[in-house]
Amino acid sequence: MNAGPAEAFPVGEHLMEELDARGWTQAEFAEILGRPPQAISEIVSGRKEITRDSAAQIAAALGTSPQYWLNLQDQFHLWKQTQDAGIRKQLNDVRLRARLNELAPLAVLRKRGVITATTPQEQAEQLCQLLEIESIDQEPRLPMAARRSNVAERVSAVQVAWLACVRRQAEQRPVSAYSADALRALAERLSNLVRDPAAFARFPALFADAGVRLVHVEAFPSSKIDGASFDMDGTPVIGLSGRGQRLDKVLFTLLHEVAHVVLNHIADGLILDEGEEDGQDREQEADCLARDWALPGRLPAVPDRISQGWLTRVATSLGVHPIVVVGRLQNDGVLNWRTLLAKNAPTVTAFLRTW
């Protein structure tokens, strides 16, 4: 913490030293400035502050700059403030609040009920517990080891806080022993299950049976996270932000994270997905597997003009919600992103919030 300015002395004392060095009395100096003697007496005694005009006159008489005298005055006032216990506490609280907001999006955490304390000191304790650091002077690490050397550099404080919330929720979720076969079998069923969007509400229990902790932490502003997966003491954890909202988008993010788990990518550490294709082999491998799970079976030949009737028939034959087919066609560039076929597409945010 900043200790504040060093000890300073009243500007009047500095002025008297200058007058003594020249052998001038206050009355003589007042005459030099063309001011009444009382004005100089009040500056020397500290009863009156130096103004810009008087600083310019003093500087002209003593061969200094006006800023020199104004700075001396400001330094003394700042130092005097630090000697007041109440002001010191206020400034320390300001420094503490600034540090808390450097570490995490404190306003968001308070709004979400993650941080419930009202004083900066108690908030600091709660934030340290969330980030698993001993003091706010430490830099928080990711909630788990990074899988790439550059992850620690590109993960922001907001993202680290989001991941810490995922970890906290996951720690409270009991699960069965992890089974890769059970998880793969579940992934193959998910698209069929969400023909009824309400099935999303049952996902945490289904994943727990396969030995995976599945949690939802709503996206923090500017976090840009769609999902994440990692190993926590031998148990896979998948966190979803629900940023896509639309059924097919959130479903694909989930299947993408499941693919990372099934393919054992999390053995090397954290997988953090921000919805941007980075061209890495593991991301492409997870995407391919997620695509197979999202739309089981092959699409028939696509007509030049896609009607709602054709879309419904194809979705029914594949056992999926029509929006899943729309999403595939949009990603393949067959359908425009503004197509009317996606109008009134179901969202799953309400179901995720039940997790």
Automatic annotation (TrEMBL):
Gene Ontology MF terms: DNA binding
InterPro entries: Cro/C1-type_HTH, IrrE_HExxH, Lambda_DNA-bd_dom_sf, Rad_response_metalloprotease, Toxin_antidote_HigA
Recorded superkingdom: Bacteria
SUPFAM superfamilies assigned: lambda repressor-like DNA-binding domains (SSF47413)
Gene3D superfamilies: lambda repressor-like DNA-binding domains
Family: Belongs to the short-chain fatty acyl-CoA assimilation regulator (ScfR) family.
Protein's UniProt name: HTH-type transcriptional regulator/antitoxin HigA
Annotated NCBIfam families: antidote_HigA (TIGR02607)
Pfam family, one: Peptidase_M78
Domain HTH cro/C1-type: 21-69
Organism ancestry: Bacteria, Bacillati, Actinomycetota, Actinomycetes, Pseudonocardiales
